[in-house]
Prior knowledge:
The protein is mainly α.
Amino acid sequence: MAQKPTPEATAAGTSAEPVVETIEVTPATRHEIASKLVDRFALWGGVAGLIPIPVVDVVAVGGLQIQMLRRLSQVYEIPFSENSGKALIASLAGAMIPASSGVGAASVLKAVPILGTIAASFVMPALSAGATYAIGKAFVQHFESGGTLLDFNPPDYREFIKAQKEMWDSRKSKVAAPSAPAPGASATSNS
Length: 191
């Protein structure tokens, strides 16, 4: 339950005990807040992927993922430890080897003058946003099932992360889908 001071409690000059109203947080509300949080951090992860300096971009994305985990822990009222959060993010990223190695490769690609930077500026934001999204959704599912940071086991979430990656890829393809007919398709048939 969250507590929110009422306007009477925050009025200037009152010496009386503040009046606090209790707000009931339902599982559906908590899930909605967590989903919006993951979406926002995935977007920020994509923006951090645009940082043109190799390694700094990866550190920035990792920092955002730690902050996302901290905020999700607050939403689900789970005690957070930065050291265990870092270890969990690293081990979960290890469970997503293709995406995490792609992020590292894209970051290193930025060291190649001009062409490397241009290529990495297309790849790195998408990989960073997708990895952040998948990690966030994995922790949302874990916390909603009653888990804590202490009992999180990354290998248990490999299939879930693959499904989230596919969902993220389908989101991107829906946004990028052209409204014109596909090349080679004709509007009329000349049979």
